[in-house]
Amino acid sequence: xxxxxxxxxxxxxxxxxxxxxxxxxxxxxxxxxxxxxxxxxxxxxxxxxxxxxxxxxxxxxxxxxxxxxxxxxxxxxxxxxxxxxxxxxxxxxxxxxxxxxxxxxxxxxxxxxxxxxxxxxxxxxxxxxxxxxxxxxxxxxxxxxxxxxxxxxxxxxxxxxxxxxxxxxxxxxxxxxxxxxxxxxxxxxxxxxxxxxxxxxxxxxxxxxxxxxxxxxxxxxxxxxxxxxxxxxxxxxxxxxxxxxxxxxxxxxxxx
Length: 256
Description:
Layout: E1 3-8, E2 14-20, E3 23-31, E4 37-43, E5 46-54, E6 62-68, E7 71-79, E8 85-91, E9 94-95, E10 97-102, E11 108-114, E12 117-118, E13 120-125, E14 131-137, E15 140-154, E16 157-165, H1 179-255
Antiparallel strand pairs: 1-2, 2-3, 3-4, 4-5, 5-6, 6-7, 7-8, 8-9, 8-10, 10-11, 11-12, 11-13, 13-14, 14-15, 15-16
């Protein structure tokens, strides 16, 4: 098939647009079974160049992203119906590096992505001058945030105050359902490791006892041998005396 057409996949996805020899090539629209749409350009069946993602839940969220060899790469913009815009970067198909979200009220949120999740410092700058700083680790907010508030004292002077607060700068990543199962497995593995260390310590103790016994045996053997040789030598020395004593006793008996 060549020219304009439509191709429906077994999973319910649909590609509509230009085809060359049955392969998407040129402008087209790919609709996922869940309702999400991608409008862009295909080259020999591979998504290339500028494309627009449209959410399938009628929320009006859209993302403008560039594709290289079928994967998002380079700068991208996520536009929400409330007017907020997130500018981020894709590296080999994953969100990576600094990102900025600009809200309609003038507030700005600056943060960084690490393999599709928010990681590191996040700074929420309010239009009035107040800043809130939070820390994220692999998409999960850690600890309280710090608020820096600027107050006007006079046209020529101002000062700021800092205080700890609990704030939600960005959507906090919810642990997956299997998170606690993985945690339990890790605890079990730690327990098994401790048991192995305990058994290893017992084996080491037995080896130490056997080593001490061997050392004692090696030290006592020469001493025992020396005692035996000394006793034998003493016996050899006393034997002539015993014989003389025995002969003298016999002679005395004979004269009587």
